[in-house]
Amino acid sequence: MTTRRPILERVVFAKNQEELAAAYADWAADYDSDLVDEMGYKAPFTAAALLHEHLDMPDARILDAGCGTGLVGKALAALGHSQIDGLDFSAEMLAQAQKKGVYQRFIQADLTQPLGIADNEYEATACVGTLNLSHVGPGAISELVRVTRGGGPVCFTVREEAWVRDPYEETLAELEQAGQCRLRDVREIPYIEEEGSSCRLCLLETLDA
Ligand SMILES: C[S@@+](CC[C@H](N)C(=O)[O-])C[C@H]1O[C@@H](n2cnc3c(N)ncnc32)[C@H](O)[C@@H]1O
């Protein structure tokens, strides 16, 4: 895969978490204008709309995991949601998200590690743009399911190259087999218009195991 923008090359092909964190620190202030306005990043809006379809309570507690600058939170707030927490490992991205004024609480945490969040803490979870090459792998999905109450939706995107390379389908099958969730929807959607890239948009329903 080749990408045109040097900053996108840095985040997609970071060799380790230090390189990834440094790239996001450098990008945070310009992320929204570069990625949404110039490059046509679509996934946050499609994912927020899908999560909203599966949530009938506007006051549902929602975790936005890998919230970045808060595009998903902003889209959910525009759809009427008011109880959204943002989680990310980058202080600089969280600082941008804070400016959106739509999050109740921020959590600085690493999604590749167990999260310090109680079981069933949230009624819904989103994770957009973060299950990706050099970012977070399929191992994080079980934590997203764990912190989401039984019956609640977990909506996430996986960049297509990561979906093909990493064992997402196997991980989802294992979680289903363990009775932790049911895969309700998976579809390929446009990811970043300028790249012509796509991602998988998945919707899980969590189950009381
Ligand atoms: C492409 S951005 C997506 C941000 C936002 N969800 C969106 O769609 O605009 C990926 C985000 O994942 C965060 N991230 C990457 N690795 C992470 C990790 N191990 N734990 C927590 N956040 C991580 C980055 O800091 C960045 O904010």
Instruction: Kindly provide the radius of gyration, computed on alpha-carbon positions and rounded to a whole number of angstroms.
Output: 16 Å
3D shape: globular
Estimate percent helicity. Answer: 25-40%
CATH architecture descriptor: 3-Layer(aba) Sandwich
Give the cofactors and ligands: S-adenosylmethionine
Major sheet? 7 strands, mixed
CATH-wise, what's the superfamily? Vaccinia Virus protein VP39
Output the CATH topology.
Answer: Rossmann fold
Count of distinct structural domains: 1
CATH hierarchy, class: Alpha Beta
Helix segment tally: 9
Account of the protein in words:
With 209 residues, this protein is α/β, with parallel strands linked by helices. The chain has one domain (6-206): Vaccinia Virus protein VP39 (Rossmann fold, 3-Layer(aba) Sandwich), CATH 3.40.50.150. It is 37% helix and 23% strand. It has helices at residues 6-12, 17-27, 31-38, 43-53, 71-78, 91-100, 141-146, 160-165, 168-177; strands at 61-65, 83-88, 105-108, 124-131, 153-159, 181-190, 198-206. It has a 7-stranded mixed beta sheet, with helices on both faces. It is globular, with a radius of gyration of 16 Å. The chain binds S-adenosylmethionine. S-adenosylmethionine is lined by residues 20, 24, 43-44, 66-68, 71-72, 88-90, 93, 110-112, 128-130, 135-136.
